[in-house]
Amino acid sequence: MSIQPSATIEDVARLAEVSIATVSRAIHTPDKVAKSTRQRVNQAIAITGYTTNAMARSLRMGRSNMILVLAPDIGDPNFSSILIGLENEARAAGYGVLIGHTQNDPERGLEYLKFLNSNQAAGLVLFTGHEPFGHQEMTARLPPSVAVFEPVFGARTSYVGVDDTAGARKAAEYLLASGHKRIAFIGEAKTRLGHTRRRKGYDLALDAARIPASSRMVIDGDGTIESGRLALEQLFMRDTLPTAFMCVNDATAIGVINGLSARGYDLPRDFSVIGFDDVPQATFLNPALTTVRQPRSAIGRQAMALLIAQLGNGLAESKEILIMPDLVVRGSVTAPGKK
């Protein structure tokens, strides 16, 4: 069986009927190429499979043109939309993207750490909320890195994501404006910086409304559907119940809604629920979930642009870019006791 030769930039130029220089500009600086020409080049790239050869080109050039993306759960509904933004920006700059699925397994994290230290990736994008850990010397030699979705403790890793504090404050203020005073925060997790920031937004809104800290209800949670259901069970063991649940993310909110529905409550007449993220499932709940929307594609684009800039200038100075989220009002919030 014969092996097909790797596609070259000449193949793309021939098929698109443009010069090699135009192909290069369409890949690296697409804003400088006419839309019709860029479309022809992109079609030729897709047909020839030229972009799949980024690793081979990297090896020939003696440097890596690959970006490693580490994610604990590629099934997370936030992952795919951020990845689209990452890939589009990387492709435009001539980089390929590799996905490392850690599954929250330290052994897998160590494997990817060894991969990074063998210079097979020029840069690193982290969804994990922490740097890959293992051998101390290897960890100290990480390439330029940017975190998305979940900020990393410490100042070494740049971060691009939603403004968690401002978004959570919007959510809490909306519940307050709807007439709620007894608002439970579900999803406290001191080991996750994003959760901590969302808790801060909740506190800032309630502080402004002069609701004393002693009357606030805060329940731990790890951001899963099951943690939302368990938090609900904890609250129902108390004498005083909230009228509204402010959840650290939509998965937690789904768990709360499922638990309330299983108890026979009518939402939002009996309880209001608000989430954070605006995952696709949010619109299919009954009632549809009011939530805070993460601009996921924009996060991916800006994160990759920041990483590529770091690679270009050889600097890895950490910085944080926060994007303001939007409140998406649906049917899961109403005034307390409203019939």
Automatic annotation (TrEMBL):
Bilayer-crossing regions: none
Listed SUPFAM superfamilies: lambda repressor-like DNA-binding domains, Periplasmic binding protein-like I
Domain of life, source organism: Bacteria
Domain HTH lacI-type: 7-61
Pfam families: LacI, Peripla_BP_3
Record-linked InterPro entries: HTH_LacI, LacI/GalR-like_sensor, Lambda_DNA-bd_dom_sf, Peripla_BP_I
SMART domains (alphabetical): HTH_LACI (SM00354)
CDD domains: HTH_LacI
Record carries keyword Repressor: yes
Cited PANTHER family: HTH-TYPE TRANSCRIPTIONAL REPRESSOR CYTR, LACI-RELATED TRANSCRIPTIONAL REPRESSOR
Protein's name according to its UniProt entry: LacI family repressor for deo operon, udp, cdd, tsx, nupC, and nupG
UniProt organism field: Rhizobium halophytocola
